[in-house]
AMP-dependent synthetase and ligase
Amino acid sequence: MESLMESTIKTPVEMLAHWVDKLGNNTYLRQPINGQYKDFSWVEVQQKMQQIAGALRHLGLKPGDKVAVLSKNCAEWFITDLALMHGGYISVPIYPTANADTIRYVLEHSEAKAIFIGKLDYWADQEAGVGGDILRMAMPYDTMPAQYQWDSLLEMGQPLIDAPFATPDQTMTLIYTSGSTGKPKGAILNFASYGWTCKAVVRDLKTDIEDRLISYLPLAHITERVAMEGSSFYSGSSVAFVESLDSFVTDVQRARPTVFFSVPRLWSLFQQNIIEKIGYKKLNFLLKVPILNNIVKKKIHEGLGLEHCHLLGSGSAPIPPSLIAWYHKIGLNISEAWGMTENSAYSIINYPFDPAKIGTVGRAIEGCSIKQTESGELLVKSPGLMTGYYKQPEMTAACFDPDGYFHTGDLCEIDNDGCVTITGRVKDNFKTSKGKYVAPVPIERKLAQDPHIELLCVIGSGLPHPIALVQLSEGASLQPREEVRTSLKATLDSINPNLESHETLDAIIVVSEPWDVDNDVLTPTLKIKRHVLEKRFSERVDGIRGGKVRWEEEL
């Protein structure tokens, strides 16, 4: 059944031709430049796709060659991706925030012959990672030097018109995982797995040509590549982009999206901004007054630019249930979803949104099967699964069970309704010096209820008891230290009595340096690298006892 279904799925290039016939000169992509939209119709996107693919042929690149893409999201990213599919090339996206070492590794490991370079904030720091012998082509933005510029590529050689459509089992892309542990791995996705997943998103979320999407999460990550770019291919939705971080709110308000996906950290920042503008007590009071309730909610929705959304989503990392419950209270229902690079990012979702299932990631989607190992690890199977890791056959073989289910590495619980709660990572569990294993994620979920905390990580490998490292929210960092200390101590004292004796936290340590991608604490998808924090803090916190709250400089 699955192979029959796969054979009927059209490729993105075929779907583009479909929308060209149906929608023609209607706007497909909207790229803000200096605060004004530059619009691309379906016809223009197809023409530019054919021309870029023709230019690559002219430059001697052959079907099957790997071509990297290093850029922030923009209309040209979509056009380049389509051109690579059209020409039979294998795309290798790289995070626009990747450092030079990561860029070098991905280019060398994938054996990329060429690279498209686009919108980048720190290209001067990244250029060392792009070898001198690789062919560089630049999108029309301020970026590192390249042999060929976008406008010249659009005039080079002949447009590639009559290329055969890709076959379902043809490799479409190598997506390198963001690497929260060790070197990134290149997941091989073919046209069948990508197309099946994109169609499943459109089927489940019911998007169509009336929908307006906004693409700002990294396209190098599979979630954005499927949920925004991919779903637009199969639904005919238009897509707008964000010009810069400074213009983010304005860009969202102008795009008036009907579907909006984000990551937990951004949902948390939105919440903080709302609370800081209105005040926590005042907001709670206003929401309790019937005549004001809807007015306040409408104002908040408009302020975020989300008043037209029929779907809000969160993924890529766990989101505190309390945060989803808070948004539900103000009339914004965030459907948490679960996926991985290896399964094309879409397998489980709480949609239609069910408030009774907040804290779970929902149920497996149609066409996806899930099960648990005896140790509680989540296994998934769907037509969206990768074919393997590039150049790593042993690792590939170890990831699949005899029935073709993929070992996700996530620990879970599955309730009687089939809803899944992720309880941690197999590799995250650590052993204390007392020889007892601790699962940090459930403890972190409890700590995350404290509104003073923006990010946190529980460490403890080789320590007598776990220690919680926390980064304060922006609002909390402005409050008197002793007030914050008292609140964190109250949180700690309320959690510890409900933990097993070997799990109790010896301390909360407030870190002084913000965690971000640049200092290697966060992956490009904003997941925390626990092993990095273990290495930095284990020796410094060893010896702290008795449920204390300390600032890093007090150690």
Summary: The CA atoms of residues 206 and 282 lie 37 Å apart. Residues 1-7 have pLDDT under 50 and may be disordered.
